[in-house]
Amino acid sequence: MSQHSPASPASPAPHAAPASPASPASHVDSSFRPATTVVAAGRPAREPGAAVNPSIVYSSTYVGDETPAPGQLVYSRIGTDAWVPFEEALAALERADQPGLLFGSGMAAITAALDLVGPGAALVVPRHAYHAALVAARVLVERCGVRLRSVDIADTDAVAAATRGEGWDADGGGPAAVVWLETPTNPMLEIADIAAVSRVAHSVGGIVVVDNTFATPLLQRPLELGADVVVHSVTKYLAGHSDVTLGAAVTSDPDLYASLRRRRTFGGAIAGPMDAWLALRGLRTLALRVERAQENALELARRLVDHPAVLAVAHPGLPDHPQHALAGEQMDGYGAILTLCPRGGAAAAARLTGAVRLWLPATSLGGVESMIERRRRWPDEARSVPEELLRVSVGIEHLEDLWADLDQALRVSQER
Ligand SMILES: *Cc1c(COP(=O)(O)O)cnc(C)c1O
After folding, report:
1. Domain count, the chain
2. Which is more confidently placed, 68 or 223?
3. Does one domain contain both 126 and 195?
């Protein structure tokens, strides 16, 4: 797959020029499996004596001439070589026909994608999703009259009705311009049928955006299922070491690519060279990390089901998950996030997060280190998320150490 050829023939303005054509020679063959692509993509050209990793160059601007050639680097906010290797790798993983777009955070990519909703247009969102994405969607309602339709994204009929506008006539928005999916959702782990929702959205002229942070392109490739744009918090699994804050957007559509790129250029939420390099460094082990973490997660979920201190456990890999079958069809694995409700309510959950010694009580996920958090400690979290629900991001430590610590913390959670 050839990445970073100029995206759109209609992008002549120098300030909108695509990233450098002098990109690393791609070692990505479209027949490569994802576990190979994460290792092989985004390498410098193979020449005797050449470095095997991209260099880190700090330069805010580039030597110019009167009329820059298409793709010539002109200024770092518009495009820099630092982003190219990661963008090439991510596009190959998501099977996109355009390069990926690296952003300064997941929220920067998300707000750029939310900007695709025009004033007064209808936007379908999951009732549960990454809380800041929903806050950003509500800002669009206040600022430009966007019609927000909040649905259970696991209920495909409800999503279809909201997309067509059926039963939503009162808001005057008509068919939805954008359907926003997150699957599995954060933190409730609901699964949306990406292919079915994409068919409905396209039948009314809308587009589908999928936040693929939880699944990663190793387990789920929304563009192949018909979605139009994928966004990521690269902060999480893709970088994977809890050491950078980054985001990305990926699409195969040249016009959507140009829009998202414009938003990055003029919004200015860009990645620094060192962070972009660290993201690529982290990506190299994505397949191994995801494989180990989801193996750990499924086994912990199975054990937790029978734990006397546990009221409820959810994980897409458990047979009693409501969308277990759909997850099995749509994904290449069930992921490494689970949720857990201890007996004894929010107080017990808080005692648990206070008692862990190996697990990190912290608000992130997708790192090598296992993390656990009571989501409702945040005022912005949806009220329908149970007070005692713990979001559990399982890392790559030894399963038995994770289990021993969780088991002792669960016991502490039941003490009063
Ligand atoms: C963390 C997260 C985000 C936000 O990403 P940042 O890099 O923190 O800006 C968006 N979506 C999901 C699903 C997340 O978990």
Report:
1. 2
2. 223
3. yes
